[in-house]
């Protein structure tokens, strides 16, 4: 069973979905509560409201989007993820707040230095943005690379974290 809650942040409404195994989905900020709920329902149409299932994560998300450095050590539900995706997401979780790494760096961390493009594909399918901070992964040439929430949001998140001012100027 998936429980959900919608969190109002300075960036917009963030949807959280979770199972007994951990966080199963975190949406990027949406312009409305309904848009965040719609994404949750696309993921699990039988999801039920369950704010208490997330401990203080909604509060930490609000603080994060207020610009505070927050730790997200929450369990994530990796059920159904391939071993490669698990490796990529776990390596990406190790990138500190306020820092960036490249797709090539992530590939090296998982022991496959030739997998930079595949790393990008795995991060494009990341259902836990912010918790798995894929916005902190940039291209080796210094460009931002891709981001499911759009490059403007990626740039805004990096500026908020004060990461890589040379890339975001």
Brief rundown of the structure:
The protein has seven helices and six strands; from the N terminus they run βββαβααβααβαα. It is an alpha/beta fold and 169 residues long.
Q: Please, could you describe this protein's structure?
A:
There is one protein chain. The protein has seven helices and six strands; from the N terminus they run E-E-E-H-E-H-H-E-H-H-E-H-H. With about 170 residues, it is α/β, with parallel strands linked by helices. The strands form two sheets. It has a four-stranded mixed sheet with strand order 3-2-1-4, sandwiched between helices. The protein has a two-stranded parallel ribbon with strand order 5-6. Helix 4 (about 105-110) packs across helix 5. Helices cover about 35% and strands about 15% of the residues.
Give the helices and strands as they follow along the chain.
Answer: EEEHEHHEHHEHH
Q: Please mark out the parts with pLDDT under 50 across 5 or more consecutive residues, or reply none.
A: none
Distance between the termini: 44 Å
Mean pLDDT: 93
Query: What profile does the largest beta sheet have?
Result: 4 strands, mixed
Helix fraction, binned, reads 25-40%
Protein topology:
Blueprint: E1 3-9, E2 12-19, E3 22-26, H1 33-43, E4 48-49, H2 57-65, H3 83-93, E5 101-102, H4 103-109, H5 116-124, E6 137-138, H6 151-161, H7 165-168
Parallel strand pairs: 1-4, 5-6
Antiparallel strand pairs: 1-2, 2-3
Helix pairs in contact: 4-5
